[in-house]
Amino acid sequence: MKQTSRALRRTATVLALGACFASGGALAQETFKVGIVSFLSGPAAESFGVPAVNGAKVVIEAFNKGAAPAPYNKVGFAGMKIEPVYVDENGGATKQVQELRNLYDREKVDAVVGYVGSGDCLAVAPVAEEMKKFLILYDCGTPRIFEDKQYSYVFRTAAHAAMDNISLARYLKARNIKAGSINYINQDYAWGHDSRKDFQAAMGNLYPGSKTEADLLPKFGAGQYGTEISALLSKTADVTHSSLWGGDLQAFILQAGPRDLFKKTQVVFSAADHVLPGLGDKMPDGVILGARGAYGLMSPKSALNDWWWKTYETANKIYPVQAPYRMVQALLGLKLAVEKAMAANGGKKPTAEQLAAALRNSEWDSPAGKIRMVLGGGHQAIQETAIGRTKYDAAKKMVMLEDIQRFPAECVNPPANVKSEDWIKAGMPGAKC
Amino acid sequence: MSTLVTILVDGVSYASWLFIVALGLTLVFGVLKILNIAHGSFYAVGAYVAASFVNWFAGWQLPPWMSIIALLCAALAVAALLAPLVERGLLRVFYGRDEVLLVLVTYALFLILEDVTKLIWGANPYFVSAPYSLFGNVAVGAQTYVGYDFMLIGVAVFCGVGVWWGLNRTRIGKVVLAVIHSAEVASSMGVNISRVYTFAFMFGILLAALGGALTAPMISVQPGVSVGVVIVSFAVVIIGGLGSIQGAAIGALIVGLARALAVHTWPPAELFSIYVAMAIVLVFRPEGLFQQVQARKI
């Protein structure tokens, strides 16, 4: 009888252990599939798409090894290995809508993190919402997404573009830089138009009476700026504002530099940090620029930023600029949201609804500072930003940024439930600078 | 007056860059009857090879003016190596087929070359601005221009006159003209059509690659540089008449001046001005300014 009961106990123990290992094995095998969408080809690949994907690769590898610093040091997402699926954003909004459907329906991804182009973001957000699938917009700038519509499944983990131009205007004002007349050169699509409008409104507020001289809107990918530079020099203004980026910005700087445009007007760029490593000594000194956040050379000192900088630089032989920063802050937010949702779900993989609930109104530390989901019903992030001035360092053979000023998130982002344009026009009431 | 001079200089400068590329496009169409969508890709390859050559030459500690030689060598290398490969290895298979099919083939080639350039040179930008500063600055009225822009105007004039002279004053040119007029008759007279096609395609690609190589010092060479130029080049050759050298020159001037006028007087109409000019020309001359109306062969 005693032997029988001992045998039964052993059998029960073996079965229990087996069951335990079996369930542990299943958990270990479970993966979290993430669709990563960014420009892998076309004009936006070099400046934004490829660096962002490079950032995703190194950070996902670190997550899967459990090598990221606390509180991001659990392997994968709460033990689930992260399986990325990379998709090229090139090809237009219609193609992106189809690609997004494919990611959810065929690839069965659990979440999508993507989109640089504002047009792409505006096109894909309603699709994810209709499909009730989880989507993080990591880069695009247009404020319209969460100002014109409410979403349940769509999030943006970076601040929108109003912040970039408000901070530029505040920087000029803080230094009492003369800005009685302003020239503009911005690309002829949503990003360029919105940036010009925001800067114009912010300057109208901080510099009442400032007037617009030349207002140029070259097409995206123009490449040749000789005529535009002549037009800017014909009506030389105190300040010249531009939101050009990527190859367009590089070509503009290369062509405008020898014609002394940068000596005749104070040039301000709203999103230009990414061209600094490539241009080197061709980047004129004294240009005021932003990075759409406290990124790259303007990033704050922290253990997390040190880790991220070293990880990215070691893998890619170049320091991280704005695009990879925005990608990593999206993935860090996603990681915490998945782990929080899993904990609330008894350790099981969360549904899209549970994920959305976990990310809504949340906040987390990123290499660029605190990210807080406070706008758009808790779906749109705000963050601090910084503006600096270029200075080539011949000893280091790189462009540095000096005279950096940091702006708290509430100083340069509108409060909840107020549209950016209305807030700027109203004189930015309640801004906490 | 000062603004007018600025518009003229800007317009002619832009037109010269455009003409070099459009001349190659119109030449290939004139001889081979191929609307080469991939023309912009050869421009991009020219820019990439130029970037590599300039950096390569710089490594040998050669005098700065040699960077201009590097640009020219790059264009020649693309024309000598890539053009025959494409013409003999791909296009030749489709000669005699529907012209629409050839357009699709060159579109496929455009996509392939986009990826090939990325495979070879990656997505990072290349900077080769050394040649851009070789010619100093030139003051014209109240404006200061980079001397390199005037060098481009000289190259464009040289290319235009050279191609016109080559076609109209040399034996080879007359053979090419005979093929343009009627390949069948030229063939029956003993002309090696195949060789003429290869030669004409190589020369067209030389001009595309030269355009890219000479533009490389003014831009960052990176994926996507091929798209913009080919669209405007098509506008140029449509205005001038497909296959016409004089047409390409006048078309480039019209586009350059219309664009410069718009940027200086009404910037939102920059792109619009190009296509308005094209539409006006097409209303009165649907075949383009310098294209003769041709009887349809049955």
Which descriptors would you attach to this protein?
heterodimer, A: 433 residues, alpha/beta, Rossmann fold, 2 domains, 7-stranded mixed sheet, 16 helices, 45% helix, B: 298 residues, mainly alpha, ABC transporter involved in vitamin B12 uptake, BtuC, two-stranded antiparallel sheet, 2 strands, 72% helix, globular
Question: How does the SSE layout of this entry go?
Answer:
The complex is a heterodimer of chains A (433) and B (298).
Chain A: H1 2-29, E1 31-38, H2 45-65, E2 81-88, H3 93-105, E3 111-114, H4 118-131, E4 135-137, H5 144-148, E5 154-156, H6 162-174, E6 181-185, H7 190-206, E7 211-216, H8 226-234, E8 239-242, H9 246-256, H10 261-264, E9 266-269, H11 276-279, E10 288-290, H12 303-316, H13 322-344, H14 352-359, E11 363-366, E12 369-375, E13 380-382, E14 385-393, E15 398-407, H15 409-412, H16 420-425
Parallel strand pairs in A: 1-2, 1-3, 3-4, 4-5, 6-7, 6-8, 8-9, 9-10
Antiparallel strand pairs in A: 10-14, 11-12, 12-13, 14-15
Helix pairs in contact in A: 2-12, 2-13, 3-4, 6-7, 13-14
Chain B: H1 2-32, H2 39-59, H3 66-89, H4 99-121, E1 137-140, E2 143-146, H5 147-169, H6 171-181, H7 183-188, H8 193-215, H9 225-240, H10 245-265, H11 270-284
Antiparallel strand pairs in B: 1-2
Helix pairs in contact in B: 1-5, 1-8, 1-9, 1-10, 2-3, 2-4, 2-8, 2-9, 3-8, 5-6, 9-10, 9-11, 10-11
Describe the structure.
The complex is a heterodimer of chains A (433) and B (298). In chain A, 45% of the residues lie in helices and 19% in strands. Chain A has helices at residues 2-29, 45-65, 93-105, 118-131, 144-148, 162-174, 190-206, 226-234, 246-256, 261-264, 276-279, 303-316, 322-344, 352-359, 409-412, 420-425; strands at 31-38, 81-88, 111-114, 135-137, 154-156, 181-185, 211-216, 239-242, 266-269, 288-290, 363-366, 369-375, 380-382, 385-393, 398-407. Mean pLDDT of chain A is 92; it is low at 11-26. Chain B has one domain (2-284): ABC transporter involved in vitamin B12 uptake, BtuC (Orthogonal Bundle). In chain B, strand 1 and strand 2 (143-146) form a beta hairpin. The radius of gyration of chain B is 19 Å and the shape is globular. The interface between A and B is large, with 41 and 45 residues.
